[in-house]
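Researcher: Last one for today. Full complex below.
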Amino acid sequence: MSGYACRDCEDSGWLDTPDGNAVVACHCREQLLASRRSRSLSAVIPRRYRGASFDRPPISSMPSAQVDLVKSYVRQLDERLAEGRGLWFFGGVGTGKTTLAMLVSQAAIDARRGVAIYSLPRLLAEIRSTFEDDAEGGYVDLLDRLAEIDLLQIDDLGAEKTSAWVLEQLYSIVNARYEAQRSIIVTTNLERDELAVQIGERTVSRLEEMCELCPLFGEDKRRFEAVDMRDKDQPPAPDLRLA
Ligand SMILES: Nc1ncnc2c1ncn2[C@@H]1O[C@H](COP(=O)(O)OP(=O)(O)OP(=O)(O)O)[C@@H](O)[C@H]1O
Ligand SMILES: [Mg+2]
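Model: Here's the assembly. Have a good evening.
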């Protein structure tokens, strides 16, 4: 193992010409620049979702049609990102939406693409705070970076009601990505029309065109585990009262 993502240029982005008198851009340079640009955005897979794999639970026990859809997205990652195609995970609480979305982001990070991962409340809070203490164009810069990154994952879309101003910023990011054909992955508990009430019809309409719908059904898997435990043949709890 060389430790470099690109062994040709050792992650410098440049290659020497055969005569050694000049340098030319390495084949990885575009991706290298994209991944550098994304560094100041949040691109952290939360600990719970790290190391997820198609071969292991919980993903191996999720409905196969939905898993296949995600598998084919990951397999064709470069094409999908080039076309600006995204995924829209919709379903009840605890059905695996974030798990699958994180798997896609992880695959894009592994492929050294620029990825930003936010829950909607956090994204909006970040936009608000950079706007409030904007000294050196931090706010405009943030919106530009969010618009340009290869893949933007927005989790919990519609989770909070927010101000018209903030929703306008969200619209401008989604619209910029829509126009430039850049991919977005979203997760939401809300039906399409409920979501439109929360974040605006124009934003939802664009997301609908950009994304393929991946519906997830079933029980809340967090809750299911708790019920499972109760059902097991447990010995009665010891009586801790003093005799
Ligand atoms: N099909 C499944 N089988 C077993 N465990 C699952 C399954 N789907 C999800 N889980 C587990 O349930 C928990 C919830 O998954 P996840 O966070 O992806 O749900 P979600 O749909 O995003 O929920 P929310 O709407 O609350 O954000 C996780 O611990 C995950 O590993
Ligand atoms: Mg979730």
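The chain has two domains: 1-27, 41-220. Residues 1-27 form one domain.
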